[in-house]
Design a protein that fits this description.
Blueprint: E1 5-10, E2 13-18, H1 28-43, E3 49-54, H2 77-86, E4 91-95, E5 98-100, H3 102-109, E6 112-115, E7 120-122, H4 136-144, H5 146-155, E8 159-160, H6 161-167, E9 172-173, H7 178-189, H8 211-219, H9 221-224, H10 228-242, H11 245-260, H12 263-278, E10 296-299, H13 303-314, E11 319-322, H14 326-345, H15 351-359, E12 361-364, E13 375-378, H16 384-397, E14 403-406, H17 413-418, E15 426-431, E16 440-445, H18 451-463, E17 467-472, H19 479-496, H20 500-510, H21 516-523, H22 539-545, E18 558-560, E19 566-568, H23 570-582, H24 592-612, H25 619-630, H26 639-646, H27 648-658, H28 670-678
Parallel strand pairs: 2-3, 3-4, 4-6, 5-7, 6-9, 10-11, 10-13, 11-12, 13-14, 14-15, 16-17
Antiparallel strand pairs: 1-2, 7-8, 15-16, 18-19
Helix pairs in contact: 1-2, 2-3, 3-4, 4-5, 4-10, 5-10, 10-11, 12-25, 13-14, 19-24, 24-27, 26-27, 27-28
The structure holds (S)-3-Hydroxyhexanoyl-CoA.
Length: about 675
């Protein structure tokens, strides 16, 4: 293996280069090389100052995650950062791309930091269930202040070079040739003594009111619920304020090791790679090129169509949006503008960006206008006949090579494709609502979908900042298909004696953002309802028939006050009781464990069927769907990873315990049974 670290002299400045693609992760060879070169520079009298710079697309993006869990190779990253800081000659970090995690810590170990305006700095360790463990929690607040360090470390979100400069985390922003500027800066500071060292005294951690930490915890209680890493980050930053540096570092080390050996970090690290694996399409060669998408067409300006369009507009891709009548078109574009303006009010977009995005939108009542689009996404309501009609029309209008996509959440893409003369150009693009916000995209691969159509969909997803997962054709694809057994069992449990609040509580305590009934009330109990108030076959039918459609009507499974605060409903309870009585179901005490087994274990079972039938490429893709589409707590890795960590034999035992109650339509996944029997796992 070639040495990733090299050096060259520019006059009396030594440049230490790292060249470790793709992201200059701080693996063992990089760490060893950095120490070697810093020591060499210190020993060489002709060298007056040092610049540390990276080749390729980014400054160090952090510790090498692939080394986690393996026997440690010296030197440790904390030692490397300490060694850089201890250098008797000024060291300047030249930052481009993303200085993340250990990369940001290396930058903090340098005495000065110079960055391109496009650079970003961050502590994403929390997303891996960790904390900056190379002095970042101690140096960070000393340099950037407690407030910013807390925000960076507990949310993991990177900040721009501009913000870093304002906070003192970057000394100078330069345009053009970064390394040339860094060398010039090193020349300027080569005789400065004493050197500014981030581990030393800082006014920024003096006189910090201790209530800052309690207030921060309270303000973010919902966000941090169940998650151990954010609080460990907070405790370390608190230690930076309360303890001398040497002791603070020990606190950081202890907490880092605790997190690293805990289950949440393992789950999150698994998920990091799961997310990246999802982008890979099985059976499709790397050499397949995506088609060029210069303009996107969207059919339907409702909530979905509007949200979908916004993704492309925000990414700078023009959109032609088509509706049936002017009123619907105006309403749809009006909602899009309002959404953009609200983003701008929150400071996440400028007025010019709003104008720019809306300027790329071409509203139209003429279907023929779709002829100029390279990708056309149908986003009308769920009805096979309507969709077939639209695709027949599209087949006559769309240009050669255009991709024809449906945003259906359940329907058969093969059947839709069959009405066209180009089924190879047809694909499912299932966005999740609100489509401009939710990160997940299910890319549904029809029997005849061409490889380059899939490659285009995956590349485009990345461009619009979605996480895409390939799904096969089946009712509800991956996510919604797994929702079906959960919903069925949740309703059965109501009749057997559980309450909506008990079931929801179990899910929320598990870490889901909301339970099945809270979700139904939010999304609309009436979604997919047959609309016949006389036909009452389920509790849901009964609620819909009396207008309890959820939050939008002020009543659903719960009652809502004017501020949409829920409370248990006696009316709903009496409907449930009536239903149970009619069906001769005897009420009994339902334990929380039974709720877990019947609503979560059954989901795992369905996931196993999906995997077995080849409707998901890999178990980890199912996990990606659930984390990004439904808010499954990432610190539990996703349903399949979670099942593995519980033990598949435990899942099978639980399901066997419940089997009689699950209903005649329910059946075991053979794959689950086989894997449990063999002591195997889905995800590893
Ligand atoms: C840490 O630093 C701990 C320290 O505080 C304390 C230690 C004591 N290591 O995302 P992409 C791979 S924890 C190894 O598709 P992008 C990635 O798997 C670390 N590999 O690119 C992928 O491989 P493949 C804190 C890594 O342009 C390829 O690089 N740092 C690492 O969309 C391309 O990645 C982080 O958490 C890594 N650190 O985004 C940063 N990072 O091609 C994690 C990436 O085989 N990384 N790879 O699938 C990122 O956030 C993004 O990768 C980045 C680039 C923004 C850098």
């Amino acid at each position: 293996m070639t040495d990733p670290i090299s050096s060259e002299n520019h006059g009396d400045v030594r440049i230490i280069w790292s060249d470790n693609p793709p992201v200059n992760a701080l693996g063992a060879a990089v760490r060893q090389g950095l120490v070697r070169e810093i020591e060499a520079a210190e020993d060489d009298d002709s060298v007056k100052a040092v610049v540390i710079a990276c080749k390729g697309r980014t400054f160090f993006a952090g510790a090498d995650i692939t080394e986690f869990g393996k026997p440690p190779v010296m030197p440790w990253l904390p030692t490397v950062v300490d060694r850089i800081e201890a250098c008797e000659k000024p060291v300047v970090a030249a930052i481009h791309g993303t200085a993340l995690g250990g990369g940001c810590e290396v930058a903090l170990g340098c005495h000065y930091r110079v960055a391109l305006p496009s650079a970003k700095l961050g502590f994403p360790e929390v997303n891996l269930g960790l904390l900056p463990g190379a002095g970042g929690t101690q140096r960070g607040p000393r340099v950037a202040g407690v407030e910013l360090a807390l925000k960076m470390a507990t949310t993991g979100k990177p900040i721009t070079a501009g913000e870093a400069h304002d906070a003192g985390l970057v000394d100078r922003i330069v345009e053009g040739d970064l390394v040339q500027h860094a060398v010039a800066y090193a020349e300027e500071v080569k005789d400065v003594r004493p050197l500014p060292r981030s581990s030393e005294h800082s006014d920024k951690i003096e006189n910090v009111d201790p209530s800052v930490f309690e207030d921060y915890k309270k303000a973010n209680a919902k966000l941090f619920r169940g998650d151990v890493a954010p609080l460990a980050n907070l405790e370390c930053i608190k230690a930076a304020v309360e303890q001398p540096y040497e002791q603070g570092v020990m606190t950081e080390r202890t907490k880092f090791m605790e997190l690293m050996s805990g289950p949440q970090a393992k789950a999150r690290q698994y998920f990091f790679f799961a997310e990246r694996k999802a982008a890979k399409i099985e059976g499709v060669d790397d050499s397949v090129e995506p088609r060029e998408i210069k303009r996107v067409g969207v059919i339907g300006a409702g909530t979905m169509g509007g949200g979908i369009s916004m993704n492309f507009l925000t990414a700078g891709i023009p959109v032609t949006i088509v509706e049936m009548n002017q009123e619907a078109l105006d309403r749809g574009t009006g909602v899009m503008l309002k959404n953009y303006q609200s983003t701008a009010r929150k400071g996440r977009m400028t007025e010019e960006q709003v104008e720019g995005a809306m300027g790329l939108l071409k509203p139209s009542l003429n279907f023929d206008d779709l002829g100029e689009c390279d990708l056309i996404i149908e986003a009308v309501y769920e009805n096979m006949d309507v969709k077939k009609d639209i695709f027949t029309k599209l087949d006559g209008i769309a240009k050669n090579g255009a991709i024809l996509a449906s945003n259906t959440s359940y329907l058969d893409i093969n059947e839709i494709a069959s009405v066209t003369k180009r089924p190879e150009d047809v694909v499912g693009l299932h966005f999740f609502s609100p489509a401009n916000i939710m990160k997940l995209l299910e890319v549904v691969r029809g029997d005849k979908t061409a490889d380059d159509v899939l490659v285009t969909a995956m590349a485009l997803a990345k461009k619009i900042r979605k996480v895409a997962v390939i799904a096969g054709v089946c009712y509800g694809f991956i996510g919604n298909r797994m929702l079906i057994p959960r919903q069925l069992q949740a309703e059965k449990l109501l009749m057997e004696g559980a309450t909506p609040q008990q079931i929801d509580k179990v899910h929320v305590e598990f870490g889901m953002p909301m339970g099945p009934f809270q979700m139904a009330d939010l999304a609309g109990v009436d979604i997919g309802w047959h609309r016949d108030p006389e036909r009452i076959e389920s509790i849901r039918d009964a609620l819909c028939a009396i207008d309890r459609w959820g939050q939008k009507k002020g009543a659903g499974f719960y009652d809502y006050d004017e501020n949409r605060r829920p409370s248990p409903s006696e009316k709903v309870q009496s409907i449930i009781d009536d239903f149970a009585a009619k069906q001769g179901i005897e009420k009994r005490e339902i334990s929380d464990q039974e709720i877990v087994e019947r609503t979560l274990y059954t989901m795992v079972n369905e996931g196993a069927k999906i995997l077995d039938e080849g409707k998901a490429q890999r178990a980890s893709d199912i996990d990606v769907v659930w984390v990004y589409g439904y808010g499954w707590p990432v610190y539990r890795g996703g349903p399949m990873y979670w099942a593995d960590s519980e033990g598949l034999d435990t899942i099978v035992e639980g399901l066997k315990r419940q089997e009689e109650r699950l209903g005649d339509d329910w059946s075991f996944s053979q794959l689950l049974l086989d894997k449990a029997e063999a002591g195997e796992k889905f995800t590893r």
